[in-house]
Amino acid sequence: MKRLFITGTDTDAGKTFVSALLVQGLQLCGDTAYALKPIASGCDVNGDNADIKHLLAASQLPLVEPDINWCKFALPIAPHLAAQRQGITLLGSEFRQFVEDPQRPVADWQLIEGAGGWLLPLSDSELLADTVSAAGWPVLLVVGVKLGCLNHALLTIRELQRQQVPVVGYVANILVDMPALTENLAEIQRLLKIPCLGIVPFQPQFPESVSLQLAKQLQQLM
């Protein structure tokens, strides 16, 4: 099984959306695939989370919520702060154990959606980035294309490279109809100097074609 960690330049960069597109595209290519969302914040009063439901719906495998989610929090705040309020500590070792659990259905691909950006704290003493780095999982960066994205993308890729994390490439996910979009996309490519799997348009009219393009590029790079 090929395992890929998906991080973003910021919260709401579009990690869940891109993860679901990749799962759907890989399945169109004939592979089996699913995406995990181990940490989810902002659940409703019933404990439901829209991102978890979206990822479950994207996969054709017989998965249920506990298969893809490790911890859920009601408050839409940093997970380690939400965990503190509940009197629990998020441990990197337990995160990794959840990801690598052999009890799930066998698949060709496992995508792991991170939470927030790359340097997300798990606790007072651990960052999620350190767990991913120690596990050796390759990383895909979702660049949320909006004002400020060049800075966010460069900071993230520099830290990934500093930690010597294998980076597969990036996806440019257009979040708003921003001015100078073409120039910004060109600058992201010039400055990051890593492969671009594709550009996800703002509210794409043909998501199936986008998902297929992303999946084919991912297959070539891994």
- What portion of residues is helical? 40-55%
User: Which structural class is indicated by helix and strand composition?
Assistant: alpha/beta
Low-confidence stretches: none
**What count of structural domains?**
1
| Count of β-strands | 8
Mean of residue pLDDT values: 95
Q: How is the largest sheet built, in terms of strand order?
A: 2-5-1-6-7-8
Describe this structure in words.
The protein is an alpha/beta fold. The chain has a single domain, classed as Rossmann fold (3-Layer(aba) Sandwich), CATH 3.40.50.300. It has helices at residues 15-28, 50-58, 65-68, 79-85, 92-99, 128-135, 149-162, 181-192, 207-221, and strands at 2-8, 33-36, 39-40, 71-72, 109-117, 139-145, 167-174, 196-200. A six-stranded parallel beta sheet has the order 2-5-1-6-7-8, sandwiched between helices. The chain has a two-stranded parallel ribbon with strand order 3-4. Helix 8 (181-192) links the parallel strand 7 (167-174) and strand 8 (196-200). The longest helix is centred in the C-terminal third of the chain and has 15 residues, at 207-221. The protein is globular, with a radius of gyration of 17 Å. The N and C termini lie close together (11 Å).
